[in-house]
Amino acid sequence: MPLEGEHELDRALRPASLAEFTGQAELVANLKITIQAARERGEPLDHLLFCGQPGLGKTTLAWLLAKEMGSEIFVTSGPALASPKDLVGTLTRLGRGDILFVDEIHRLPRSVEEFLYSAMEDQAIDITIDQGPSARCLRLSLQPFSLVGATTREGMLAAPFRSRFGLVERLAPYPVEDLVCILHRAAQSLGIGLAEEAAVEMAGRSRGTPRIALRLLRRIRDRAQVQGEARIDLPRAREGLRALGIDAFGLERLDRELLMALIARGGGPVGLKTLAASIGESVETIETVYEPFLLRLGFLSRTPRGRVATRRAFEHLGQPVPSTFQTLAPKQKEGIQEEFDF
Ligand code: ADP
Predict the structure, then answer these.
(1) Residue 64 alpha carbon to ligand 1 centre in Å
(2) Which pLDDT belongs to residue 337?
(3) pTM to 2 decimals?
């Protein structure tokens, strides 16, 4: 999760145009067509949903859409909207073609989600004034606007809500070359030299995530600055990564704690709630931030009875592999059952 101040860094290092947005080529091509078509028709963009892990660029894309369309963007988030009345002011202020960006849209209460249906489809909302016998229902017209939602948990969105988005785009983790490119651009904006090998090393340990790559760059730049260096070279990058506790695979302290919590219980299976409690993190953070990466690396798997550390995890952390791992069939060993959601 980004810390205070990291949001400002995110903003400062945001690409200035869609052309400067690195990677996600197919998604960007789709957006360009949607933008051009909407512009030619003089209409607002269709409602759009971005899905993907934190830090992959969903918010950035929402800002870039507003910029390309020459419209205003109003930013809010699912947890900030407790009831429909929290949205009335914003919805009625939206001008024609403006963007309402709702981050963590899967966390909208059902009442707010349903309130948005008529806003999205009919550009109108129904509000109740007064209470008791004198209560009246009033229909307010809105300017045609675009709802842009971002979610890390697409599966949590109700089907009727999801189907109201004309475009659903998924952001994938970035390959190292894209992250290298993002790092070079950011180093230039920050006014620090960055050797190619150093950029590759940092990119390879950034879990495919621009926000993490940029965070590492800033931390390592701080170290270079304090040491009076104007350039980050490979030894300096490695030294910084070591000091930050990021290992060769990009695992952080909490990833290792999570795996060690499983290993301490013979590798699992351990229920998600128990796991969360044992490392002092929320279930949602584990599911959206740590787990997808550990699954991708093959260090963790999901079984109907809970999470399991794989043989690879034991080996990576230098822990003796339990004898049961030697005798079980490969399927049982790994217990891979991705479709289960606990
Ligand atoms: P999300 O909304 O998905 O959590 P953000 O849009 O806040 O992610 O992106 C996090 C940081 O990474 C920002 O500083 C953003 O500018 C940068 N970033 C993300 N994707 C890209 C990209 N494709 N090119 C350049 N910078 C990017």
Answers:
(1) 11
(2) 38
(3) 0.86
